[in-house]
Design goal:
Blueprint: H1 2-24, H2 38-57, H3 65-84, H4 90-112
Helix pairs in contact: 1-4, 2-3, 3-4
């Protein structure tokens, strides 16, 4: 059941992303994610190091690692893309990715991992 849900959710998110790209005429960059500038790049690196350090030392936060990490990371990415590359509209995809990651975590916790 869990595997079927994850596959269906993944197909839904991929289809939704394609629809959003077509509707908003977003030029998606090839390859891995590229930060908009050096401040963005180093801020994300520092954020990842800080979050991993906190999670390593505070065991109570390990259950909430994924939603906290993905929400903050994708929100920061969306803000930086909106601030510095507004015309590319790539920030819409970051908002979609962050929202879908948070939504799948909530669904998993509510229905599969009670």
């Amino acid at each position: 059941m869990l595997f079927t849900f994850l596959i269906a959710y993944l197909i839904f998110i991929i289809a939704l992303e394609k629809i959003v790209i077509k509707k908003f005429n977003i030029k998606k960059k090839k390859g891995l994610y590229k930060p908009v500038n050096k401040v963005h790049k180093w801020s994300e690196i520092i954020f990842i190091i800080v979050i991993l350090t906190i999670i390593f030392f505070v065991n109570e936060l390990q259950h909430y690692f994924f939603p906290i990490f993905s929400t903050i990371l994708f929100s920061f990415r969306a803000f930086m893309e909106w601030k510095f590359e507004k015309e590319s509209k790539v920030f819409i995809l970051s908002i979609l990715s962050g929202s879908s990651a948070l939504l799948v975590w909530i669904i998993l916790v509510l229905f599969f991992f009670k």
